[in-house]
Amino acid sequence: MSATGRYQYLFNPLRIGPLTVRNRVVFSAHLTNYAADGMPTEQHAAYYAARAAGGAGLIITEEHSTHPTDWPYEKLIHGFNPAVIPGYRRITEAVHAHGTPILAQINHNGGQASSMFSRQPVWAPSPVPDPLFREVPKALEPHEIREVVAGYGLVAEHCVAGGFDGIELQCSHSSIVRGFLSPATNKRTDAYGGSLANRARLLLEIVDAVRAAIGPARALGVRICGDELIEGGTTIEDAVAIAQMVEAQGKVDYINTSIGVATATLYMIEASMQVPPGYAMFIPSAIRAAVSLPVVGVGRFKDPLQADRALAAGQADLIGVVRGQIADADFVAKARAGHATEIRTCLSCNQECVGRMGLNRWLGCIENPRTGREAVPLPAPRRRGQRVFVVGGGPGGLQAAVTAAERGHHVTLFERSDRLGGQVLLAASVPSRAEFLDITRNLVAHAQRAGVDVKLSTEVDADLLLAERPDAVILATGATPNAPWWAGGHPRVVDVRDVLEGRAVPAGKVIVVDELGFHQATSVAELLADRGCQVEVITNGMVVGQDLGVTLDMEQWNVKAAARGVTQATDLVPMGAAPADDGDGVVLSLQHHPTGTDQTRAVDWVVCAVHQRADDTLYRALLAARTGLPAGPHSPEGRQAGDLPFTVTRVGDCLSPRRAHAAVVEGQRAAVAIA
C-alpha cells in the first residue's frame, strides 16, 4: 500500500473554480490576534507559510474588516485601509513559495461588535442588541447598505493587489450578512427583510460586487451558517435554500459551512472535547445534496482518517482542519508520508487557541510551543552532544527532553512513578476529559523517536546527580497538594488529587471547594455525582468554574451539573472545618463575602480544588550541596563561580504551580537555553 493508500479521497486533487487544490484539507479561517495597528504582520506570513509547508491543500486567512464601523476586537486586520497591501504580499508570497493557494476571508461583523474601538455606532440590519456585546446597533439605511457593499468590493480589490488567489465571504457565525440572513436579527420591513429571498439580498449584492472586483481568475467562496442554534434563528432548511440561491447566481465557486453564532452559541463553533468529532457534518451533508458546488465541512477533526471517512461518506468535498493544524503544522504532510501516528494530535482543550483569543492574546497551542512564534527562529545549539538529565515526566519534563534531544543532546529522563504524564494522567481520568491524555501520548511518542533514554520508577536525589555529573539538569518535579489553612487537619477535608489518586473515597453529601475556577472542581464534582454522591460546588468567585467560559466548556458543565443534581453556590469563602457531632462528618463554616454574613454546611466530606505547593525538594537539596548552607526560597537559578558542576533549571509546577501550557513552554525554553 502506498503512503496515501489508506485514504480514499483525502489526497485527491479538486478543482475549485479557477483553482486546483492538491488535497482536500483546508486550513479554514480563524482569528489569530497577530495583527498590529490594523495591519498584517510577519507573524501572519510565518504562521500561514508553516501550514503551507506542512501540506495544507488550501489556506483561508482570518477575516479582514471591510468598513471602519467594524472593529469588534483590537487586533483586527483593517482590510479597507490600502496600507495592508504590502503585508498581504508578504503573506501570499510566503504561502505561494510552497505551492499552496491562499484565500482572504473578508467580513463586516455587524451588530456582533461594540463601539469601544471604532467610537462609532455598530451597524446591523435592525436595532437588535447582541447578547454578548449588549449594545444596540444602528439599523442600516439604504445609502449605508450601498456603502457596505462597496466596502466589500474595495477590500476584494486590495486582496487582489496583495496576491491572494481569491476571496471567502464570511456570512456565518459573526457577520453583518448573517445578521441580515437570520430572522432572529433581521426585523426589517423593506426589500432587505421579511422573506428569505429579501434577507439574502445583501449577500447576493456583495457577491456581485466582489466577483466584479476579483474577476474570473480568482476563486470566490461563501461561508454559511447551517444552524444558529438560537430561537428564531437560521435553520438548516434556510441554509440549504441560501446555498441554492448562491449557486443559481453563478458567481461563486464553493460553499463553506459553519454552525452556531459566535456570541450566543460560540461553544458549538469551536467545540471542546466535550462535543463529539464531526458533530456539525449534518450541515455540509444537507447542502451538498442540494448544490453541485464543492462544499467544505467542519467539526473538530482530529486526525486525517476521520477527515477521509467524512469525504468517503459523501458528507463534504473538503474538510476544514483548524485546531489539528494549529497543534501540528505538518498534519497533512505526515499523513501523506504514512506517518499519521506522528501527528501531534489536538486536544480540543481550547486553552491556548480559543482561550487566548478570549483574553485578547495572540493565538498559541497548549502542546506546541512554536505555534504563535513561527516568525521568531530558535537559536542554533551552541554545542551539541551534551549530557542532559531531566527529572520529572510530566508535560514540562517531556517537552524539555524532546527539545534537547532534537537539538543534538544526549538526554535521560527520570520519572519516579511507573508512568509518564504527571498530573495529566489525573486530569484525563475524569468524565469527558480523556482526550487531554493526548498531550502525554504525543510527547511520549516524540521522545521515543528523538532517542530520549527514559528511566521509570527511578527516584533522583542530589547525590545521584552529583555522582553522574551531567552537563545540564532540568527539574520538572511538579507540585504536591497543599491543605488550605482553614481545613484544620480534618481527615475528611481532602484534595482533588486525593480523590483521583484513590487515597480518599468520599461518599454521601460532599462539598467541592473551587478556588481555581477551572476543570479541577467541576470534573471531580461530576465524577463524585456519577458515583452517587450528593454534590454541591462552592466558590469564592462569582461563577463556579469561571475559566470554563474561556475554553467554551461552561455551557456543557452547567447542563451536566443540572442533569446530575449538582448544586452550585458562589461568593462563599471557607473559614473553618470542624468535626460534626457524630464525629465522622464535617461542619464547614463559610462567609458570604459580599455581605459578610456567615453560613454553615454539615456534610460528610469536603474536597478541595485549591492551589498546590511547588515540589522543589530536589532543587533545594542541590542548593544546599552547592552552598553548604540552608537553601532559601529565592535562590538564583543557574551556574555561578564555585557552583555545581552542571546548570540547574526548573520548569513548570516545581517553579510555580500553573497550568500545562506554562510547563510546555518552559520545558522548551530550558532546553533551548542549554549552553
Task: Please describe what this structure looks like.
- Keywords: Flavoprotein, FMN, Iron, Iron-sulfur, Metal-binding, Oxidoreductase.
- This protein has 675 residues and is of the alpha/beta class.
- The protein folds into three domains: 345 residues, TIM Barrel, CATH 3.20.20.70; 152 residues, NAD(P)-binding Rossmann-like Domain (Rossmann fold, 3-Layer(aba) Sandwich); 125 residues, FAD/NAD(P)-binding domain.
- The protein contains 22 helices and 27 strands.
- It has an eight-stranded parallel sheet with strand order 10-9-8-5-4-3-12-11. The protein has a five-stranded parallel sheet with strand order 15-14-13-16-27, with helices on one face.
- Strand 3, helix 1 and strand 4 form a beta-alpha-beta unit.
> How many domains in all?
3
Q: What summary fits the major beta sheet?
A: 8 strands, parallel
Predict the CATH topology of the largest domain. TIM Barrel
* Strand fraction: 15-25%
The low-pLDDT segments are 629-636, 638-642
Q: N-to-C terminal Cα separation, in Å?
A: 45 Å
The Rg value, from CA coordinates, equals 27 Å
Secondary structural class: alpha/beta
CATH superfamily of the largest domain: Aldolase class I
Tally of extended strands?
27
CATH-defined architecture of the largest domain: Alpha-Beta Barrel
Secondary structure tally, helices: 22
Major β-sheet strand ordering: 10-9-8-5-4-3-12-11
CATH class of the largest domain: Alpha Beta
Helix content: 25-40%
Domain FAD/NAD(P)-binding: 387-620
Pfam families: Oxidored_FMN, Pyr_redox_2
GO molecular function, one term: FMN binding
Protein name: 2,4-dienoyl-CoA reductase
